[in-house]
Amino acid sequence: QVQLQESGPGSVNPSQTFFLTCAVSGGSITAVNNYWAWIRQTPGEGLEWMGTISYSGTTYYRPSLNNRASISRDTTKNHVILQLSSVSPEDAAVYYCANFYEYGQGYFIDSWGQGTQVTVSS
């Protein structure tokens, strides 16, 4: 089974940029038909999909993020990375990475990480 573990700085300053890492084990991030997503949970908006990177490296983003998010990968380390720039208090959330796979006409959740909390300091 695929396992994921998120890590990050914990606290960031407004207007700064932070990086989150999703360490993947039990499967390759380049495995065919697998997708790797970043999802965050805030008290006001619940679960919000931010973006996805496919097994081939194609990325997809939520338009409302206004191009602040960037997802990349390190295939050597089998990591998926989220970069979020120009942060504000609205970005304070628990951030999760999740693994989806494509089968037939749909996409299915394989696993979630436990999440990492990001706070925005004053």
DSSP strand count: 11
Mean pLDDT: 95
**β content, as a range?**
over 45%
Encode the helix/strand succession as letters: EEEEEEEEEEE
End-to-end Cα distance, whole Å, is: 40 Å
Structural class by helix and strand composition: mainly beta
The largest pleated sheet is described as: 7 strands, mixed
Shape: globular
Binned, the helix content reads under 10%
The parts where pLDDT drops under 50 for at least 5 residues are none
Count of helix runs: 0
Q: What Rg, in angstroms, do the CA atoms define?
A: 14 Å
Task: Briefly characterize the structure.
The protein is 0% helix and 58% strand. The relative contact order is 0.31.
Describe the structure.
This protein has no helices and eleven strands. The chain has strands at residues 3-7, 11-12, 18-25, 34-42, 46-54, 59-61, 69-74, 79-84, 93-103, 106-112, 116-120. The strands form two sheets. Strands 2, 4, 5, 6, 9, 10 and 11 form a seven-stranded mixed sheet that branches. Strands 1-3-8-7 form a four-stranded antiparallel sheet, with no helix packed on it. 24% of the residues are buried.
